[in-house]
Design brief:
about 525 residues; alpha/beta; Isoleucyl-tRNA Synthetase, Domain 1; 5-stranded parallel sheet; 3-stranded antiparallel sheet; 18 helices; globular; RNA-binding
Length: about 525
RNA sequence: GUCCUUGUAGUUCAAUGGAUAGAACGGCGGUUUCCUAAACCGUAGAUUUGGGUUCGAUUCCCAGCAGGGGCACCA
């Protein structure tokens, strides 16, 4: 007993038993889903189709994908879903700009990813729009009025109305441009290594939401104002009034989310619905939960808003209008360049073919990016400095990948020398403190997985893996493995190393990060 | 204005009410005839302020200060 704490020591035999049980278990720390496991649906990504994905989406995508893996590892059934906001004024702005100034440009003709092309027209729209507002204001019109009366915005609204009225030509243009965007998104998703089991489109769900709202109106849950708009009164819940249908009858974000939710629960036997959406929408989801509940959906009350923090840049928030966004595609390709340069400088992969090397650069680049983002508590805002943030040394993805690669280098050599380590309990040697510590950490893996699942936190996995690797590197530095003459100790250390690498791979898989055999 | 949220080394991040607040980057100083030095070791350096609860508070409560976000017929 020291200062009221009970300090226990265990024998080497105890620790070898712990290690062997972890080593022999093929899915150590993981729980398989069974027939009656609950089904979790996770919505993430949820892009608008008027611009390419940026750093904020990257955090969302990585968190959503990782969360899905973590829940699977905890024995849940998981359906990953994406709600694509494919309709609305934003895409109409791009459509108007393309039709007006696009000169028939296509992704092929301009050699551009479709999402970037469409995004450029959105920016072009905003530029013209701002100019028009400025001119109107110089003619003595108030800012509010100018924003509504500018010719560009009137045209965009006209397109939106035509879209809602199913105008053939408008729908054709809309389909064409959205298709460009989807091709671009698919490429980015593939690059990031994220995927979905089921994609919903708001153009398919908004009418369902509208029906629900009108039904609620009939039942007296909502009320209609003189101007024909429909509202929910949430003052009883301590909130305010919320608009559900505009005076022209068109639906808003909230309405669409109600429709999407209804469709999803019709399509899947969902036990828990998780929305991976930024914390700027906390209020929205609070309201959505109440509205779904009052509309009689029993699952409304316990929907879970996985509310993550914003990604900030050194000079503040990302603002698309001010051009201070970090583009997802550029980010990834920049990371790959740095990975390649670093690797070439160190001369590590000289006997690799170009393809093999390229593949490894990608694994390292994405490892760095993903780990950097996922190691931070999802709930908190995080700062991203494009110049300094992504490092390959220290507490980083590549540091952990490097440890994995070194272990596998040893395991390859062991194989070459036909060494087959005997997996049997033994206490005939004195284990070092660091070896005991590593086994202690290994034994804590199942608990770490469980806690990450309970608290929906990829950061816990990242931090766990880091501490394991930190300990292992110390051991690697201090203790000979293959060159250890005592075969019992050598085999023990091989098993220890192999088990650590297995956990690195398993934990990183949950984070969506791959590990290289060499680097 | 109102509601929510965050303040920890120079910087970016950790820390279930519990032992000496833990890392990384950056700084300074070391380690390579030895399984990958993208590694390892040493060193200096921090809980926003003031109250309260508690045997014990970075953690819980109240107030101040500072940052971020919400309160749209945007999504």
């Amino acid at each position: 007993m020291v200062k009221g704490f009970l300090n226990l020591t265990f024998s080497s035999l105890f620790w070898t038993k712990q290690l062997l049980s972890a080593s022999k278990d093929k899915s150590f720390g993981l729980t398989e889903a069974s027939e009656d496991s609950p089904l979790y649906m996770i919505e993430y990504s949820s892009p608008n189709t008027n611009k390419p994905l940026h750093l904020g989406h990257v955090r969302n995508n990585l968190l959503g994908y990782s969360l899905a893996n973590i829940l699977k590892a905890n024995g849940k059934k998981v359906v990953k879903t994406n709600i694509v906001n494919d309709r609305g004024i934003h895409i109409c702005k791009s459509m108007y700009a393309w039709r007006t100034w696009g000169e028939g440009k296509t992704p092929e003709s301009s050699n551009m990813k479709g999402d970037h092309l469409v995004g450029d027209f959105y920016v072009l729209f905003e530029k013209h729009y701002r100019q028009e507002i400025k001119e109107l204001m110089e003619n003595g019109i108030t800012e509010d009025e100018a924003k509504q009366k500018a010719p560009s915005i009137l045209e965009a609204h006209k397109l939106l109305q035509k879209w809602e009225a199913n105008d053939t030509e408008t729908r054709k243009l809309w389909s064409k441009m959205n298709k460009w965007v989807y091709d671009g998104f698919d490429q980015t998703y593939r690059e990031l290594g994220v995927d979905f089991d089921k994609i919903y489109y708001e153009s398919d769900t908004y009418l369902v939401g509208k029906e629900e709202v009108l039904k609620g109106l009939k039942e007296g849950l909502f009320y209609r104002k003189e101007d024909n708009s429909v509202w929910a009164d949430l003052t009883k819940e301590g909130l305010d009034q919320k608009i559900l249908l505009r005076s022209d009858g068109t639906s808003v974000y909230m309405t669409q989310d109600i429709g999407t939710a209804k469709l999803r629960f019709k399509d899947f036997p969902i036990d828990k619905m998780i929305y991976v959406v930024g914390n700027e929408q906390n209020y929205h989801f609070q309201v959505l939960s109440i509205l779904l509940d009052s509309l009689g959906f029993k699952w409304g009350k316990d929907l879970y808003h996985f509310s993550y923090g914003m990604v900030e840049l050194p000079n503040g928030k990302m603002k698309s209008r001010e051009g201070t966004v970090v583009d997802a595609d550029e980010l990834v390709s920049g990371m790959k360049d740095v990975a390649r340069e670093t690797s070439e400088k160190l001369g590590k992969l000289e006997d690799y073919t170009k393809e093999e090397a390229q593949k490894t650069y990608k694994i390292i680049a994405l490892g760095a990016l993903k780990y950097f983002i996922l190691k931070v508590d999802p709930k908190k805002n995080m700062l991203f400095n494009p110049e300094e943030s992504i490092d390959f040394n220290g507490n980083t993805g590549p540091f952990i990948q490097y440890t994995y690669a070194r272990i596998h280098s040893i395991l390859r050599k062991a194989k070459e020398r036909d060494i087959v380590s005997e997996k049997k309990e033994s206490d005939i040697f004195e284990m070092s403190e660091i070896e005991k510590n590593i086994i202690k950490t290994i034994s804590a893996y199942p608990q770490a997985v469980k806690e990450a699942g309970d608290s929906f936190s990829p950061a816990l996995i990242a931090n766990y893996i880091y501490s394991l690797v930190k300990e292992y590197n110390q051991f690697y530095h201090d203790c000979p493995i293959l060159s250890e003459e005592n075969k019992i100790i050598r085999d023990f250390r091989l098993i220890l190393s192999e088990t650590v690498s297995k956990i690195i791979k398993s934990g990183f898989k949950m984070l969506g990060i791959e590990v290289p055999e060499r680097m």
